[in-house]
Backbone:
């Protein structure tokens, strides 16, 4: 959530507000009242107590959440949020999930990027990654050790990679994640490079990594929003994404159709709404990008990404704080 909160902070600073940006855990005891507070969080029950503890900080409170499924919360907890906060999800999908949990939805404000940041790339870093990895497709996403099902879809991507003809052309798949997949019992196919701890990459390096790739592969089963496709689109990098509701609200690229919808109760209290893609369809999508290119998609995606610049996309917050 750091990128999201940073974009929101920058937006309000540039609008002339005095902004205090801190980790939600460090804000338990206010030293003074403030005009408004925006709590940026994923919508999961273990985090709700942290959010509720912020109720006394301000006269106006916004819960700016995204969620990949239905929060398994009590009616009393939902009523607390409906009483004390404006509930402002980041997507229509997150809004519907919130409604099913009993939350009142006061508006929708999407996640946003600093579009200008993605308009320049360090070419030396791009070349460094090309020398390191060669021709490669990129996956960026976290793995969760507590979950028996990985919602980011890396397991499906590994199956797709084994079916793909791309390995015959010495194309690699670079996986940038927090844990090594073997720690979660996954077998890593030949031709896959694993970069753990997110590589310790700076924002400039991540940007160059996108740009050096043949395309971003984002087969996530469910998202409350999902920033990586938007970042890739702003860089004119091809995007391959799964047919999941939140992605369909903004993503432009090669969409891999959903073949099965199902539910998984995650250990952290969310009934995740899973959208499964077939490995063979994902493999064919990567091959399409490699062999045929997707110039039309790239140019259209770039134009859509402009609309999600924080200076434009976050205007919706102003009505909740009187700006």
Residues:
């Amino acid at each position: 959530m750091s990128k999201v909160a940073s974009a929101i902070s920058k937006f309000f600073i540039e609008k002339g507000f005095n902004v205090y940006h801190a980790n939600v855990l460090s804000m338990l005891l206010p030293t003074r009242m403030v005009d408004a507070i925006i709590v940026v969080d994923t919508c999961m029950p273990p985090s709700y107590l942290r959010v509720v503890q912020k109720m006394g900080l301000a006269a106006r409170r916004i819960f700016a959440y995204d969620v990949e499924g239905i929060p398994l919360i009590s009616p009393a907890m939902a009523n607390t949020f409906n009483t004390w906060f404006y509930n402002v999800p980041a997507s229509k999908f997150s809004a519907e999930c919130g409604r099913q949990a009993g939350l009142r939805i006061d508006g929708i404000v999407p996640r946003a990027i600093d579009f200008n940041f993605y308009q320049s790339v360090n070419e030396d870093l791009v070349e460094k990654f090309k020398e390191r990895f060669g021709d490669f497709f990129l996956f960026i996403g976290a793995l969760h050790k507590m979950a028996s099902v990985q919602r980011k879809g890396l397991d499906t991507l590994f199956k797709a990679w084994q079916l793909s003809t791309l390995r015959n052309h010495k194309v690699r798949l670079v996986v940038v994640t927090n844990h090594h997949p073997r720690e979660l019992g996954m077998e890593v196919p030949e031709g896959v490079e694993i970069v753990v701890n997110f590589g310790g990459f700076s924002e400039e390096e991540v940007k160059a990594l996108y740009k050096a790739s043949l395309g971003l592969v984002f087969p996530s089963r469910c998202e409350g929003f999902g920033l990586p496709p938007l970042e890739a689109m702003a860089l004119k990098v091809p995007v391959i994404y799964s047919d999941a509701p939140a992605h369909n609200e903004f993503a432009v690229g090669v969409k891999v159709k959903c073949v099965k919808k199902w539910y998984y109760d995650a250990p952290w209290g969310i009934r995740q709404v899973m959208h499964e893609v077939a490995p063979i369809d994902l493999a064919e999508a990567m091959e399409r990008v490699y062999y045929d290119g997707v110039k039309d998609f790239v140019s259209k995606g770039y134009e859509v990404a402009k609309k999600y610049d924080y200076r434009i996309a976050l205007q919706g917050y102003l009505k909740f704080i009187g700006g």
Remarks:
- The chain has two domains: 2-112+310-321, 115-306.
- The chain has 13 helices and twelve strands.
- The longest strand covers residues 34-42.
- The radius of gyration is 20 Å.
